[in-house]
Amino acid sequence: MDTLCDKLRDPVSRLMEPCSIAVIGASANPGKRGYQIVQSLQRNGYPHPIFPVNPRGGAILGLAVVTDVLSLPDNVDLAVIARPAADVLDVLAACRRKGVAGAVVLANGFKESGPEGARLQEELKRFIAQGGIRVVGPNTSGMINFGCGADLVGLRQATRHGPVGAITQSGNMLLSLLADIEKHATPGLDVYVGLGNQIDVGFSELLTTMALRPSVKAIALHAEGFHDGRALLAAAAEVARTHPVVLLRGGRSDAGRRTALSHTGSVSGSDRPTVGVMRQVGVTLVERSDELAIVAGALSSLPLPRTGAGVAVLSDGGGHATLAVDHLEAAGIRLARLSEQTRGALREQLGDTAVVGNPIDVASAIDASPPLFARCVQILHDDPDVGLVLIVGLLGGYHLRFDSAEKPAEDEACRAIAEWAHARRFPIVVHSCYEHRRPSPHAHLRDRGIPVTGSIEHAVACVRAVVERGAWLGSIAERTRGADFQRLQGPVRMRIDERSADAPSPGSMPEPAARRLLEAHGMETGPWSLARSADEARERVQAFGVACALKIVADGLSHKSDVGGVRLSVDADSAAGVYGDMTARIRDACPQARIEGVLVAPMIARGTELFLGVTLDADYGPLIAFGAGGITVEAVKDVAFRALPITPLEAREMILETRISKLLAGYRGMPSISVEALARLIVDVGSTALRVENLVDLEFNPIILNESGLHIADVRLISTS
Amino acid sequence: MDTLCDKLRDPVSRLMEPCSIAVIGASANPGKRGYQIVQSLQRNGYPHPIFPVNPRGGAILGLAVVTDVLSLPDNVDLAVIARPAADVLDVLAACRRKGVAGAVVLANGFKESGPEGARLQEELKRFIAQGGIRVVGPNTSGMINFGCGADLVGLRQATRHGPVGAITQSGNMLLSLLADIEKHATPGLDVYVGLGNQIDVGFSELLTTMALRPSVKAIALHAEGFHDGRALLAAAAEVARTHPVVLLRGGRSDAGRRTALSHTGSVSGSDRPTVGVMRQVGVTLVERSDELAIVAGALSSLPLPRTGAGVAVLSDGGGHATLAVDHLEAAGIRLARLSEQTRGALREQLGDTAVVGNPIDVASAIDASPPLFARCVQILHDDPDVGLVLIVGLLGGYHLRFDSAEKPAEDEACRAIAEWAHARRFPIVVHSCYEHRRPSPHAHLRDRGIPVTGSIEHAVACVRAVVERGAWLGSIAERTRGADFQRLQGPVRMRIDERSADAPSPGSMPEPAARRLLEAHGMETGPWSLARSADEARERVQAFGVACALKIVADGLSHKSDVGGVRLSVDADSAAGVYGDMTARIRDACPQARIEGVLVAPMIARGTELFLGVTLDADYGPLIAFGAGGITVEAVKDVAFRALPITPLEAREMILETRISKLLAGYRGMPSISVEALARLIVDVGSTALRVENLVDLEFNPIILNESGLHIADVRLISTS
Fold first, then answer.
1. Rounded distance, CA A26 to CA A59, Å?
2. DSSP letters of B195-261?
3. Would you say domain A2-298 falls under CATH 3.40.50.970?
4. Lower CB count within 10 Å: N or C terminus of chain B?
5. Is A658 helix (H, G, I), strand (E, B) or coil?
6. Could you tell me which chain B residue has the CA closest to the CA of A360?
7. How far away is chain A from the Cα of B454, in angstroms, using its nearest Cα?
8. What is the spatial distance between Cα A538 and Cα A575, in angstroms, rounded to a whole number?
9. How high is the pLDDT of residue B358?
10. Residue A335 gets which letter from DSSP?
């Protein structure tokens, strides 16, 4: 207990669970935030001391006003600063002198507002870097502790205390979350922090600190980009081991990114890397804002399905079942294969009109007797291939649809299902088209953590989230730890910072040098040779004994093939001529290029073209990418990402995310490769790349998969050295 | 008026707007459907005669019971048959004798239940084919006319009469629709028909008939497949010119198709063709069941945006705006480019803290004054590039969020927006995270047809639907008419039916015959020649003067390349040898193959591989398909479909649906082709294919796009002749 308490008393924890609050810029004017915050704390019954601060003194809402920050008692947990941007620095300095643990800065007018605001923000940043006080914001809607009533946002609505921690970049996303919690009767919030411009406290630290709160069972994030994505990966990879983390991204599209920039001054990177790395660290992604509360709520209360088991759909009427199955299949969720025994037992319960496949359609058997549902769930639970039951249709609303006299029976059926499933930690998700009526049977289900939704699609989103989380946790020993992500942060940060204007700009290394560098680090890149004269070119081709590709090697030349710098299928007889031709042409077309020679490599037979690359991402540090290769890679965009270091399991999952992975098993006579072998290559390339100093970008494109295996056709390496 | 009335009195219209109802199988037992229907009609104040029919006689709910069908008055509009499957045929026969216009058959136990039921269904079908009575069902939940209270489903909930017609395959989808209408306060239903097994009245006829009702402004469909897809295309292409039609498909996945089969005995085909042909005929597709009511409601009330104009997003707070823009971009909806004048006018209204790009973020300007929204909308309307305004954030909830004293101002602001937009027929969609509280300002918006939703994603779905419908109607003159789809129905049906077991099975035509057939119909397939001997092979290659591809021509051989039946880059010197080699090998490997010779065609330089094909679809008749080609076409699945006949505009839209279309403009030195030229080819191939008798399947795969244009590398033609 002591340890936990100690942990909870770090400044960020004190800020989230404050035992005293100073309201700086408190006001007697009910139209001002400085009044509303005091009012809100009182209305919510916040039980600890509140100190309004205003140079005018007097009293606000019955509380004596402190005339300046320096007159506050020492070591206040939290100061909320309701003063304009220009005053914030002075107020913070005073707070620090008085030992205030953390401050929430509401003002806007910083980076999001233009150059002058950006200057103010930099000033503030330098001050905070000196230590002594932690800051949330600026440009934030505030913080709320729903347990003790510390509501700095000043909500005017009744809210339920619940198990979900929420961190959002935009204040309005809190309003959406609360609306969805109320609308869908999902589990409520425990604590909320609006990060705003993230000048100090950011997602990663807050995520870790929030997970230390015993009252938090799941964490919902809304982000438009991460200032230090690698730290977030490290934090999330650890937090996700104990807590579900759900992320809604804003700024996924080009237009959305521009909007995010003007709104909190944060630039979110391309969305594809985010999708890959978040899956890697076990973060649940939601694509729709209207699913954040529902999915986070479901994950906070649902037990996990048996690893590897499938989903059973229990329905009344085929229409809903068909739609549920469509969405499950689209989400890649496997339906359970029911055993003969299970089918027999269901048939016995449901009679001849029912369909006892999966989905199970109870048809008209249930109309007469809702309690049959409880028995079906029990039968399904006993099938080892059923990990979760999704009930779709009318459950809980039969008494509304057919006969109100059935209500007690339906209450009892739902209570029985809930208690029974709770005792066995068996996950159930319920869709009912009477959910919006809030019938009492649903309350029994929810009381035991069973999500009930009125939308089939929301129900499937819950199922998907819990099944995917189960799969992630089920193989946790084979996944990269947070510390491994963290370890790379320092040197990577340095290399990223070197990309600034005054640093030497990173350059593409000539291919022979790149291949030699990789080979020096123990990585084979296939047969190749450098020819520095026409004669050498002939000799090299002769030595390989097969037709070769010849590629110009020249500094200051980017798209070789566009200027005739690549010739394919050259035999020994013509090699010298091709060399002379090619070098003359390049000298002509690009006089500035410094020609080193020609790279000679045996022709590679046609096959499936793959892409494999490592890049130093400004958000997430070193990433590895795999997908469809060739010159159309950017147009086709069939590429998946993961953060380095990567494990074989993670590489396999990355491969299977691509469409091209469907061709790897061999297709209509095309060559095949096992996902395992490819995963090993990916892991090797990843670890080699990490050993190469100053590496910014490494691309093998294409890697050709043909009858004789994998062949690297082209190596491109960019470094800052 | 007379004409309309006459039309309305066709049997299916009488069934939907009955002036008399017979309840066959009426019962005095409140637990029976035969009681509940009578009760439901009375409860809803159905104003016309109700005739309960039951051999026991007496009275039910105060109405004298008719003892048998033959004692009914003549020409009753609608009989609802609440009798078991086995009795239905006799009852229908009696109904027909009495001139009953239409019957709704509730019983299940037909095709969906197994062989015995399928037999009953066939018997019923034969009876109906004789004419004299129209039938909805069997296995249906019934029909409801919300205007006159003719509710055969027996709902126990209050419902609002509204402008949406609904046709569903599954009865439970009605419950979902009604739940969503209530939950989201969207426009209600005018008439509902549950089709069930569609033994007689199907989607196409009902769609056309429903559109004749003056009270119907939009039609919502839920379907798990169409028994006669071509008739539906013909109907939808015409109805969509006057009425929005929204379709939710069930059975899109493999598992979902199996489920649909066991549920209404209908088999839905692959989903890709459905997506293509529905877009072609102007049907709005929704992917989520929870969007059917919302989108149909929005389309029923929203005016259309100016053709070609973009969308403006008006937000309070960047978080919601960023998410809205993300989803709009993902849906392919263009954001409006605001003019300098517009920006200036907005800046004047909103002050310095606002962001006056698109999205427009009113920032804190509005908190103080919701009526500013009305002025912003007016400014945006005056910008010629703004076709629609999407408002996201808190509109209508400011008085709940900040100060209840603001309510009158907010009511007034929303009323002003609604009246103003209504007068100008300017489309506005509103997202508000206070929607679930049903604040009165939202009622003003809804009263004038402005959809208000609590979900950003639902709001974007409404925007997308109305923008896409505007684009479709905006170019209506360039689209295929229903009659043109209809014209092909007869012969196509015949050819599809020929595929039955006892008809000659369709066969693949040898490629030379296929090419000759196409050439005879005026379509060039490129240079080729048939060699019947080794000497001829050498001569042919010599005549072409370039290296050629040689392909075996043999009956009874499917995958030529798998058995060594294809050789590339053969020159004249080696042609004879290759011929001998190839024919010997095939004779060896496939003794049953009848070798005709070898097809010789000049080698085609590498390029982008495309697919173009025509197929006789069992659901929709002749379809044309275009996309990424090569041997991986089935694995990559980047193919779009349209029904034939196709117009150039429709072909262009089909091309742009594929991912590979991004490469057509030329990419990193690859050859390019205009979408127009490709569309012309597609239209030509489509009309040629329609002229070829007995055609079942035509495939050009690949068509290679290289520097010298498009080249057909392989022709495959399957016919029933």
1. 10
2. -TT-SSS-HHHHHHHHHT-TT--EEEEEES--TTHHHHHHHHHHHTTTS-EEEEES--SHHHHHHHH
3. no
4. N
5. coil
6. B259
7. 8
8. 5
9. 94
10. B
What is the distance in angstroms between the Cα of A29 and the nearest Cα belonging to chain B? 13
Residue B403 banded pLDDT, cuts 50, 70, 90: confident
Q: How many CB pairs under 8 A join A and B?
A: 245
Q: List all residues 6 or more positions away from A147 whose beta carbon is below 8 Å from its beta carbon.
A: A17, A161, A190, A191, A215
CA distance A108 to A100: 22
- List Cα–Cα distances, A607 to A569, B492, B506, B567, B645, in angstroms: 16, 40, 34, 17, 38
Q: The domain A527-602 is classified under which CATH number: 3.20.20.70, 3.40.50.1980, 3.40.50.880, 3.30.1490.20? A: 3.30.1490.20
The radius of gyration of chain B's CA atoms, rounded to the nearest angstrom, is 31
Q: A359 preceded by cis ω (within 30°)?
A: yes
Residue A607 tokens read as: 């096959």
Check if the beta carbon of residue B540 is closer than 8 Å to that of residue B714.
Answer: no
Element (H, E) at B93: helix B88-97
Give counts: helices (H), strands (E), chain B. Answer: 26, 31
Would you say B704 and B549 are in contact if contact means Cβ atoms under 8 Å apart? no
By three-state DSSP, how is residue B368 classified? coil
Query: Token pair of B29, please?
Result: 């037992």
Identify the residue whose tokens are 């045929």.
B89
Q: Express each pLDDT in A360-408 by its tens digit.
A: 998 766 565 778 889 999 999 999 999 999 999 999 999 998 888 889 9
Q: Which helix (H) or strand (E) holds B684?
A: helix B675-691
Q: Do B456 and A290 touch (CB under 8 A)?
A: yes
The pLDDT confidence band at residue B2, using thresholds 50, 70 and 90, is very low
What does the alpha-carbon distance between residue B508 and residue B510 come to, in Å, rounded to a whole number?
A: 7
Q: Where are the domains of chain A?
A: 2-298, 302-477, 527-602, 608-719
Cα separation of A460 and B659, whole Å? Answer: 28
| Nearest-by-CA chain A residue for B356 | A262
Residues of A in contact with B259 (CB under 8 A): 318, 321-322, 325, 357, 359
List, for residues A655-703, the tens digit of each pLDDT value. 999 999 988 887 666 778 889 999 999 999 999 999 888 888 899 999 9
ipTM: 0.93
CATH number for the domain running over A608-719: 3.30.470.20
Residues of chain B found within 8 Å of residue A263, distances taken between Cβ atoms: 317-319, 321-322, 355, 361
Q: Which of A393, A386, A336, A398 is nearest to A361 (CA)?
A: A393
Same fold, B527-602 and B608-719: no
Look up residue B154 and give its two tokens. 């027996």
> Which band of pLDDT confidence, cut at 50, 70 and 90, is reported for residue A7?
very low
Calculate mean pLDDT across residues B56-68: 96
Nearest C-alpha in A relative to B194: A319
Contact A433 B457 (CB under 8 A): no
- Rg value, chain A, Cα: 31
3-state secondary structure of B549: strand
Sign of the CA dihedral with A173 first, then A178, A181, and A183 last: negative
Supply A326's token pair.
């469509």
- Coil/strand/helix, residue A598: strand
Measured between alpha carbons, how far apart are the two ends of chain A, in Å? 52
Q: What fold does the segment set B302-477 form as a domain?
A: Rossmann fold (3.40.50)
Inspect the interface and report whether the beta carbons of B290 and A561 lie closer than 8 Å.
no
Which chain B residue shows the shortest CA-CA distance from A141?
Answer: B317
Q: What is the mean pLDDT of chain B?
A: 91
Nearest Cα to B36, choosing from A434, A401, A433, A398? Answer: A401
